[in-house]
Protein backbone atom coordinates (compact mmCIF):
# COMPACT_ATOMS: atom_id res chain seq x y z
CA UNK A 1 0.00 0.00 0.00
CA UNK A 2 1.31 3.45 -0.95
CA UNK A 3 0.41 6.93 0.28
CA UNK A 4 1.86 10.33 -0.56
CA UNK A 5 2.94 12.51 2.41
CA UNK A 6 2.70 16.14 1.41
CA UNK A 7 4.08 19.39 2.82
CA UNK A 8 2.77 22.63 4.30
CA UNK A 9 3.69 26.26 4.69
CA UNK A 10 3.18 28.52 7.69
CA UNK A 11 1.25 31.69 7.00
CA UNK A 12 2.42 33.94 9.81
CA UNK A 13 3.96 32.65 13.03
CA UNK A 14 3.81 34.38 16.42
CA UNK A 15 5.71 33.20 19.49
CA UNK A 16 3.44 34.36 22.31
CA UNK A 17 5.03 33.07 25.53
CA UNK A 18 7.21 30.40 27.13
CA UNK A 19 5.16 27.57 28.63
CA UNK A 20 5.75 25.78 31.91
CA UNK A 21 6.44 22.53 30.02
CA UNK A 22 9.41 24.11 28.23
CA UNK A 23 7.63 24.58 24.92
CA UNK A 24 6.43 27.89 23.50
CA UNK A 25 2.86 29.03 23.03
CA UNK A 26 2.46 29.99 19.39
CA UNK A 27 -0.06 30.76 16.70
CA UNK A 28 0.23 30.18 12.98
CA UNK A 29 -1.81 29.03 10.02
CA UNK A 30 -0.90 25.79 8.27
CA UNK A 31 -1.68 25.60 4.56
CA UNK A 32 -1.15 22.31 2.65
CA UNK A 33 1.03 22.01 -0.44
CA UNK A 34 1.00 19.42 -3.21
CA UNK A 35 4.76 18.85 -2.82
CA UNK A 36 4.88 15.23 -1.72
CA UNK A 37 6.96 12.08 -1.60
CA UNK A 38 5.75 8.51 -1.38
CA UNK A 39 5.49 6.06 1.49
CA UNK A 40 4.98 2.32 1.05
CA UNK A 41 4.41 -0.36 3.66
CA UNK A 42 3.96 -4.10 3.19
CA UNK A 43 3.91 -6.99 5.69
CA UNK A 44 7.43 -8.27 6.33
CA UNK A 45 7.86 -11.98 5.51
CA UNK A 46 10.99 -12.22 7.67
CA UNK A 47 9.35 -10.87 10.86
CA UNK A 48 11.62 -7.85 10.94
CA UNK A 49 10.51 -4.24 10.61
CA UNK A 50 12.76 -2.14 8.38
CA UNK A 51 12.75 1.37 6.95
CA UNK A 52 14.58 2.22 3.74
CA UNK A 53 14.96 5.52 1.90
CA UNK A 54 15.37 7.01 -1.54
CA UNK A 55 15.16 10.53 -2.94
CA UNK A 56 16.52 13.45 -0.94
CA UNK A 57 18.95 12.54 1.87
CA UNK A 58 17.59 12.04 5.39
CA UNK A 59 20.21 12.44 8.14
CA UNK A 60 20.30 10.46 11.37
CA UNK A 61 19.53 6.92 12.50
CA UNK A 62 16.51 5.42 10.72
CA UNK A 63 15.30 4.07 14.07
CA UNK A 64 14.70 7.67 15.17
CA UNK A 65 12.75 8.55 12.05
CA UNK A 66 9.11 9.47 12.68
CA UNK A 67 7.96 6.63 10.41
CA UNK A 68 9.57 4.11 12.76
CA UNK A 69 8.30 5.94 15.84
CA UNK A 70 4.78 5.84 14.40
CA UNK A 71 5.10 2.10 13.73
CA UNK A 72 6.31 1.42 17.27
CA UNK A 73 3.51 3.55 18.71
CA UNK A 74 0.88 1.50 16.87
CA UNK A 75 2.62 -1.80 17.53
CA UNK A 76 2.56 -1.11 21.27
CA UNK A 77 -1.19 -0.58 21.34
CA UNK A 78 -2.42 -2.85 18.55
CA UNK A 79 0.26 -5.56 18.22
CA UNK A 80 0.45 -5.15 14.46
CA UNK A 81 2.77 -7.41 12.42
CA UNK A 82 6.24 -6.46 11.27
CA UNK A 83 6.40 -4.37 8.09
CA UNK A 84 8.80 -3.22 5.43
CA UNK A 85 8.53 0.55 4.99
CA UNK A 86 10.06 2.53 2.14
CA UNK A 87 10.07 6.32 2.08
CA UNK A 88 10.87 8.24 -1.09
CA UNK A 89 11.71 11.74 0.13
CA UNK A 90 10.94 14.81 -1.99
CA UNK A 91 10.49 17.48 0.72
CA UNK A 92 13.80 18.93 1.98
CA UNK A 93 14.56 18.11 5.61
CA UNK A 94 14.74 20.88 8.21
CA UNK A 95 13.19 23.50 5.94
CA UNK A 96 10.04 24.38 7.90
CA UNK A 97 7.78 22.51 5.48
CA UNK A 98 6.60 19.78 7.85
CA UNK A 99 7.96 16.95 5.72
CA UNK A 100 9.03 14.76 8.64
CA UNK A 101 5.77 15.44 10.47
CA UNK A 102 3.82 14.40 7.38
CA UNK A 103 5.84 11.17 7.14
CA UNK A 104 4.94 10.26 10.72
CA UNK A 105 1.26 11.15 10.36
CA UNK A 106 0.92 9.30 7.06
CA UNK A 107 2.56 6.22 8.56
CA UNK A 108 -0.17 6.15 11.20
CA UNK A 109 -2.89 6.48 8.55
CA UNK A 110 -1.26 3.95 6.23
CA UNK A 111 -0.89 1.26 8.87
CA UNK A 112 -4.37 1.96 10.19
CA UNK A 113 -5.77 1.21 6.74
CA UNK A 114 -3.38 -1.63 5.91
CA UNK A 115 -4.26 -3.57 9.04
CA UNK A 116 -7.90 -2.40 9.28
CA UNK A 117 -7.41 -1.06 12.79
CA UNK A 118 -10.45 1.25 12.56
CA UNK A 119 -8.74 4.05 14.48
CA UNK A 120 -10.85 7.22 14.23
CA UNK A 121 -9.57 10.52 12.87
CA UNK A 122 -9.66 12.08 16.34
CA UNK A 123 -7.70 9.16 17.78
CA UNK A 124 -5.14 9.45 14.98
CA UNK A 125 -4.72 13.16 15.76
CA UNK A 126 -4.10 12.37 19.43
CA UNK A 127 -1.49 9.76 18.49
CA UNK A 128 0.08 12.11 15.94
CA UNK A 129 0.48 14.81 18.61
CA UNK A 130 2.68 12.40 20.57
CA UNK A 131 5.00 12.18 17.55
CA UNK A 132 5.38 15.93 17.05
CA UNK A 133 3.57 19.24 17.26
CA UNK A 134 2.94 19.57 13.50
CA UNK A 135 1.89 15.96 12.95
CA UNK A 136 -1.86 16.25 13.73
CA UNK A 137 -2.32 18.77 10.91
CA UNK A 138 -1.55 16.14 8.28
CA UNK A 139 -4.30 13.81 9.48
CA UNK A 140 -6.97 16.22 8.23
CA UNK A 141 -4.71 18.15 5.82
CA UNK A 142 -6.86 21.27 5.46
CA UNK A 143 -6.03 24.93 6.16
CA UNK A 144 -5.97 25.29 9.93
CA UNK A 145 -5.17 27.89 12.56
CA UNK A 146 -2.75 26.28 14.99
CA UNK A 147 -2.21 27.26 18.60
CA UNK A 148 -0.68 25.74 21.73
CA UNK A 149 2.52 24.00 20.60
CA UNK A 150 1.03 23.97 17.11
CA UNK A 151 -1.07 20.92 17.91
CA UNK A 152 -4.39 22.64 18.69
CA UNK A 153 -6.07 23.03 15.33
CA UNK A 154 -9.06 25.13 14.29
CA UNK A 155 -10.35 24.85 10.71
CA UNK A 156 -9.75 27.96 8.60
CA UNK A 157 -11.87 29.15 5.69
CA UNK A 158 -8.82 30.65 3.97
CA UNK A 159 -8.83 29.79 0.28
CA UNK A 160 -5.83 30.58 -1.92
CA UNK A 161 -7.11 28.56 -4.86
CA UNK A 162 -5.90 29.84 -8.19
CA UNK A 163 -2.85 31.64 -6.81
CA UNK A 164 0.69 30.42 -7.49
CA UNK A 165 3.35 29.51 -4.98
CA UNK A 166 7.07 29.56 -5.65
CA UNK A 167 9.22 27.89 -3.00
CA UNK A 168 12.98 28.23 -2.49
CA UNK A 169 14.99 26.15 -0.02
CA UNK A 170 18.57 27.33 0.52
CA UNK A 171 20.98 24.53 1.55
CA UNK A 172 20.82 25.37 5.26
CA UNK A 173 19.46 23.29 8.11
CA UNK A 174 18.18 25.51 10.91
CA UNK A 175 17.70 23.56 14.13
CA UNK A 176 14.80 24.23 16.46
CA UNK A 177 17.31 25.30 19.11
CA UNK A 178 18.90 27.87 16.79
CA UNK A 179 15.51 29.18 15.67
CA UNK A 180 14.25 29.78 19.20
CA UNK A 181 17.55 31.08 20.61
CA UNK A 182 16.98 34.72 19.73
CA UNK A 183 13.18 34.87 19.87
CA UNK A 184 11.58 37.12 22.47
CA UNK A 185 7.95 36.06 23.04
CA UNK A 186 5.48 38.89 22.56
CA UNK A 187 1.90 39.67 21.69
CA UNK A 188 1.48 40.54 17.99
CA UNK A 189 0.38 43.94 16.77
CA UNK A 190 -2.04 42.32 14.33
CA UNK A 191 -4.11 39.22 15.13
CA UNK A 192 -3.25 36.46 12.69
CA UNK A 193 -6.78 35.12 12.31
CA UNK A 194 -7.92 38.63 11.33
CA UNK A 195 -5.00 39.40 8.99
CA UNK A 196 -5.66 36.32 6.82
CA UNK A 197 -9.18 37.59 6.13
CA UNK A 198 -7.74 40.75 4.55
CA UNK A 199 -6.96 41.05 0.81
CA UNK A 200 -3.66 39.38 -0.05
CA UNK A 201 -1.98 42.65 -0.98
CA UNK A 202 -2.37 43.82 2.64
CA UNK A 203 -0.51 40.86 4.13
CA UNK A 204 3.01 42.16 3.48
CA UNK A 205 2.99 44.65 6.35
CA UNK A 206 0.77 42.69 8.73
CA UNK A 207 1.38 38.94 8.42
CA UNK A 208 4.72 38.26 10.13
CA UNK A 209 6.90 35.34 11.16
CA UNK A 210 8.69 36.04 14.46
CA UNK A 211 11.56 33.73 13.54
CA UNK A 212 12.62 35.95 10.64
CA UNK A 213 14.15 38.62 12.88
CA UNK A 214 16.93 36.44 14.26
CA UNK A 215 17.25 33.98 11.37
CA UNK A 216 17.71 36.79 8.84
CA UNK A 217 20.34 38.39 11.09
CA UNK A 218 22.34 35.14 11.19
CA UNK A 219 21.63 34.12 7.60
CA UNK A 220 21.24 37.24 5.43
CA UNK A 221 21.16 35.05 2.34
CA UNK A 222 17.71 33.81 3.37
CA UNK A 223 16.46 37.36 3.68
CA UNK A 224 17.88 38.05 0.21
CA UNK A 225 15.77 35.19 -1.18
CA UNK A 226 12.64 36.78 0.25
CA UNK A 227 13.47 40.14 -1.30
CA UNK A 228 14.16 38.51 -4.66
CA UNK A 229 10.68 36.98 -4.61
CA UNK A 230 9.15 40.38 -3.94
CA UNK A 231 11.25 41.91 -6.71
CA UNK A 232 9.91 39.21 -9.05
CA UNK A 233 6.31 40.21 -8.32
CA UNK A 234 5.25 38.17 -5.30
CA UNK A 235 2.24 39.68 -3.54
CA UNK A 236 3.36 38.08 -0.28
CA UNK A 237 6.58 36.32 0.73
CA UNK A 238 7.73 34.78 3.99
CA UNK A 239 9.90 32.20 5.65
CA UNK A 240 7.95 29.03 6.48
CA UNK A 241 8.08 27.95 10.11
CA UNK A 242 11.60 28.23 11.47
CA UNK A 243 13.08 28.07 7.95
CA UNK A 244 15.06 27.82 5.84
CA UNK A 245 12.35 27.59 3.14
CA UNK A 246 11.08 30.88 1.73
CA UNK A 247 7.92 31.05 -0.37
CA UNK A 248 6.32 33.71 -2.50
CA UNK A 249 2.64 33.87 -3.44
CA UNK A 250 1.97 35.23 -6.93
CA UNK A 251 -1.22 36.14 -8.76
CA UNK A 252 0.24 34.74 -11.98
CA UNK A 253 2.69 31.96 -12.63
CA UNK A 254 6.06 33.18 -11.39
CA UNK A 255 8.70 34.22 -13.94
CA UNK A 256 10.81 31.45 -15.42
CA UNK A 257 13.85 33.54 -14.55
CA UNK A 258 13.31 32.66 -10.86
CA UNK A 259 14.27 29.04 -11.46
CA UNK A 260 17.45 30.22 -13.16
CA UNK A 261 18.21 32.69 -10.35
CA UNK A 262 17.93 29.93 -7.76
CA UNK A 263 19.30 27.07 -9.83
CA UNK A 264 21.71 25.86 -7.11
CA UNK A 265 18.82 25.61 -4.62
CA UNK A 266 15.81 23.34 -4.29
CA UNK A 267 12.79 25.07 -5.88
CA UNK A 268 9.16 24.11 -6.28
CA UNK A 269 6.23 25.80 -7.97
CA UNK A 270 2.55 24.89 -7.79
CA UNK A 271 -0.90 26.32 -8.36
CA UNK A 272 -2.59 26.36 -5.00
CA UNK A 273 -5.86 24.59 -4.18
Please tell me about this protein's structure:
The chain has helices at residues 66-78, 99-114, 121-131, 137-140, 176-181, 192-195, 212-218, 220-231, 257-261, and strands spanning 2-3, 7-18, 24-33, 38-43, 50-55, 83-89, 144-147, 152-155, 164-169, 236-239, 246-250, 266-271. With 273 residues, the protein is of the alpha+beta class. The protein has two domains: 2-155, 2-Layer Sandwich (Ribosomal Protein S5, domain 2); 164-271, GHMP kinase, C-terminal domain (Alpha-Beta Plaits), CATH 3.30.70. β7 and β8 (152-155) form a beta hairpin. α2 packs across α3 (121-131) and α7 (212-218) crosses α8. The chain starts with a strand and ends with a strand.
Write the topology of this structure.
Layout: E1 2-3, E2 7-18, E3 24-33, E4 38-43, E5 50-55, H1 66-78, E6 83-89, H2 99-114, H3 121-131, H4 137-140, E7 144-147, E8 152-155, E9 164-169, H5 176-181, H6 192-195, H7 212-218, H8 220-231, E10 236-239, E11 246-250, H9 257-261, E12 266-271
Parallel strand pairs: 5-6
Antiparallel strand pairs: 1-4, 2-3, 3-7, 4-6, 7-8, 9-11, 9-12, 10-11
Amino acid sequence: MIVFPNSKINLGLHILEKRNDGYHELETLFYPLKLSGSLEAIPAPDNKTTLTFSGLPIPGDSQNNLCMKAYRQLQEHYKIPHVKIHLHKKTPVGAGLGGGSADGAYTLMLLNELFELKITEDQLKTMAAELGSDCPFFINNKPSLASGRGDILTPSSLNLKGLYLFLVVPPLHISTKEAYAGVVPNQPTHQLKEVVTLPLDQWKSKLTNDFEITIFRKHPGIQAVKQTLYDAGAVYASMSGSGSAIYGIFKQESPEQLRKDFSPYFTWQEKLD
